[in-house]
Design brief:
By secondary structure, the chain is α/β, with parallel strands linked by helices. It has 3 domains: 11-143, Rossmann fold; 154-217, Helicase, Ruva Protein, domain 3 (Orthogonal Bundle); 224-377, Zinc Finger, Delta Prime, domain 3 (Up-down Bundle), CATH 1.20.272.10. It has 17 helices and 7 strands. α2 (52-66) runs parallel beside α4, α12 (260-282) runs antiparallel to α16 and α16 packs across α17 (359-382).
């Protein structure tokens, strides 16, 4: 979430699909207003409704709050909280709600804002509707979009959020530990805040957080756990690789979104990343023995035009720490071995789709062939 910023208008709308950031920012504004205005007459109105009737009651309470003078004099801040009828929800489409919102807009246009402030926090908002356009014109609208793995800047924003939260708790964190934290949590601001709180409690009086602390207490999300299979392949550790594959196949029984093909595509992505790293080292763009800070700096100077435009295949679109962790993996394979591995994985894809063979057996055979390498596989065949 951005740094705290003062608002210059008495009417503010905070909205977006990042529920955690919206609530944090709205609470921040309301607390600032309450401190500035003083008094005890500030009101919070819950506007999370399940039907149009409840929406009309919330709007009626809002209008009453705006037009009721503070009992003890002075100013008043009103917060319409968790509003869920400003988008395309069923309650929002009701004619009575639309008409009431239109009437409210007219009242807000004529309202005397002296010592009165209105904050509205909401999730999804339809920017095409008259109510949003009026609020944007009369006051200030702040939007908070949820992070997505496809967003180019989500890693940087997540690192900033975590660093600020840790600093506020008197903690420091190494670059590698911070990158490990972000990789483990993924693009989820609420979970990131929870893990920061957990970390701070875990380290106690210790000031600096290390990668070992991250490994000890931070919960790895689904995406991070999925990387474990690729990491085992990169380490060329066959027992660990087969054990991790068994774990993935077991969890697949309870997660309908996971498939053998999905695991295969993750492995293809891992081998492709190692191939790109090999080529980037050969071109002299990165150094194989660089530490994490120098590695990040080297990535900034890689010629963008030399890599695929499609973000799905562009290593620079990855979390730089994930790319850094794959650097020693790339050194465990020759370029020829990685090219051979891509061929084996593509053949595995064909067999998974078109044959009646057991999927787990096909994956196991493929991974054994990759890790052993062509030379070892040939020796085994001769025995």
């Amino acid at each position: 979430m951005p740094a705290a910023a003062a608002v210059s208008t008495p009417l503010v709308l905070v909205h977006g699909d990042d529920d955690f950031a919206v609530k944090q920012r709205a609470r921040q504004i309301f607390q600032q207003w309450s401190a500035e205005i003083g008094g005890l007459d500030h009101e919070v109105i819950d506007a999370q409704v399940s039907n149009s009737g409840e929406a009309l009651k919330a709007l009626a309470r809002l209008r009453e709050a705006l037009n009721t003078l503070p009992f003890f004099g002075g100013g008043k801040a009103v917060w319409l909280q968790n509003c869920n009828f400003l988008g395309d929800e069923r309650a929002a489409s009701a004619a009575a709600v639309t008409e009431t919102l239109a009437d409210l807009v007219q009242e807000l246009k004529a309202f005397t804002w002296e010592n009165v402030r209105l904050l509205i926090s909401a999730g999804k908002v339809d920017k095409r509707k008259a109510f949003y356009k009026a609020l944007e014109k009369l006051g200030t609208a702040e939007a908070f979009a949820a992070w997505s793995i496809d967003d180019k800047n989500w890693v940087g924003e997540a690192e900033t959020l975590a660093s600020r939260a840790l600093k506020a708790r008197g903690k420091e964190i190494s670059d590698e530990a911070l990158a490990e934290l972000i990789e483990s949590v993924g693009p989820n601001s609420r979970e990131l805040a929870n893990e920061v709180e957990k970390l701070s409690l875990y380290v106690g009086e210790k000031k600096r957080i290390t990668p070992e602390d991250i490994a000890a207490v931070v919960t790895r999300n689904k995406q991070a756990r999925a990387f474990a299979l690729g990491d085992a392949l990169g380490e060329r550790d066959l027992p660990r690789l087969l054990r991790t594959l068994d774990e993935e196949l077991w969890t697949m029984k309870f997660d309908s979104q996971k498939t053998e093909i999905g695991l295969l595509y993750g492995l293809i992505s891992k081998v492709r990343t190692m191939l790109f790293l090999k080529e980037m080292i050969r071109e002299g763009w990165i150094k194989a023995d660089a530490d994490y800070n120098r590695f990040k700096g080297q990535l900034e100077h890689v010629p963008a035009g030399k890599l695929p435009e499609d973000r799905r295949f562009n290593p620079l679109a990855m979390n730089p720490y994930m790319l850094y962790k794959a650097l020693p993996h790339a050194r465990r394979y020759s370029t020829d071995e990685l090219i051979r591995a891509m061929g084996l994985l593509l053949d595995c894809n064909r067999r998974l789709i078109s044959s009646s063979l057991d999927e787990s057996l096909v994956l196991q055979q493929t991974l054994v062939q990759i890790v052993r390498g062509a030379g070892e596989a040939l020796q085994s065949a001769r025995k």
